[in-house]
Structure formats: C-alpha cells, structure tokens
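Before relying on records like the one below, remember that each one covers exactly one chain. Contacts with other chains, cofactors or solvent are not represented anywhere in the record.
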Amino acid sequence: MGRFANTWRLTKNSWSLLKQDRELLWLPVLSMLTILAIVAAAAVVGFVTGSFDASGGAESVEGSAVVLGLVFAFVATATVVYFEGALVAGAHERMTGGDPTVRSAMSKAASRLPSLLGWALITMTVGLVLRFLRERLGWLGQMLTFLAEAAWGVATYLVVPAIIIDDFRSFASVKHSMSLVRRTWGENLIAQAGFGLLGFVIALPIILVAVLIATLVPGIGLYIGIAVGVIGVLAVSVVVSALSLYFKTALYEYATDGVAHGGFDIDEMEASFRSK
C-alpha cells in the first residue's frame, strides 16, 4: 500500500504542474490527429496502388501490403514517439523553472529527432517480432509474448526522458533506462497500471452518461450519445497520457540527479527508490 499511496501523491503533484501548462495538452491532441491522417493516407495509398486488391494473387498482395504497412507503421510510431518527446521536453522545462510552450516543446523534441526516430524503429521492430511469435506459437506464444511485452514496457519506461533530457542515443537510452529501472521498477510498474486505472475510472461515468443519452433520447439521442462518449473518452485519454509523461519525467529526473524538481517532495521521491 505504501508504494501505491506514494505513487498517488506523485500523480497529484504531476497534475499540479500540468495545470500550469494546459496548452501542452495540444501535443497529444496533435498526435492523435496526425495518426488519423496517417491512417487515412495509408488507406488511400493502399487503394490507389492496389495493395488491398486480391486479384493479383496472394503473394503480390502480401508483398505490397507488407511494404505499405511497414512504412506507415513506422511513420505512426515515430509520430507517437515525437509528441511524447515534446511533452517530456515541456515537463522538463517546467520542472526546471521554465515556462514551456507548444513551440518550445516541439523544438526541443525536433533537436533530438534522430534518436527519437531510432527509438521508434526499435520499439516498432520489437512489437512486430512479438506479434509474429504470438501468431505463430498459439496459446504458448500468447502467454510468452504477453510477459515479454510487459517486461519490455517496464524496462524501456524511461527511454524517452533519457533521449530528451540527457541526449542519449537510441540504443544507449534503452540501456540507461534498464539500469534505472532496477531502482524504480516498483514505482514505474505501479504507475503504468495506475494511470490506466485512473483513465478507466474517469472515463466510466462519461461512457455511462453517453449510453443513457443514446438509450433514453429518441432519434438523435443515439448520435449525441456517441459524440459525448467519443469526445469524453478522447479528452480523458489526452489528460491521462500527459499526466503520465509528467510523472515519468519527474521519476527520471530524480533517478538521475537525486533532485526533486518542480515542487515534488524530496521524501516522496526518495520513497520511490527504497529497497524492494
């Protein structure tokens, strides 16, 4: 219970910082919009080039679809990583006494673009390998890849802050994150689960309201309910993702230099690194 209570206090501190930088919430919004544009572009290119047309035979379809899929998967992954980096940059600027803007955050992420792209390629490759194993090894593959994905997520939890804050290169950032995880494993594992649970708890009443509107209001109520549900869940997702990155930045800062930045309590941060 001690770790959960400490993580909750750190989460509230992250929220107090995020409230000062509301404009940075545009970063996850821009990330989502860019992903939608990429998906739309992939669909258009697929139909125009005939990648989705099975008339040419299974082998030709598979080859063209795989190439198209890999290209757009990398672009989508790189987009997510870039905007995560921008939000970490903004959080770091706030925690070290600055006043971040969307422009300053994106500029800092752009200065680390080669390393961020390298990390995007690494994480995409690992994801594809695990997916391949899951599909080929049946129930055993599903179990093993589930464990592998969880371990990979924990081990690489601090990769993006390492790239943005300390300018680590792609592979070096993975190694550095793994070394820090040996001390922060409890806090970052609980944080990953905690932010997911937080998002679910906040989104649940929104979903219930949307269902009630769709059920009780005749005619147009269905469309209003869907709109309320989608917009509400997306808004929760934006805030929770930003909050988790502020937390991640604070955890990385203390893990590397032993200083609690941005108003975080030194005792709470020290509690994150006590022995297992």
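Confidence is low (pLDDT under 50) at residues 56-61.
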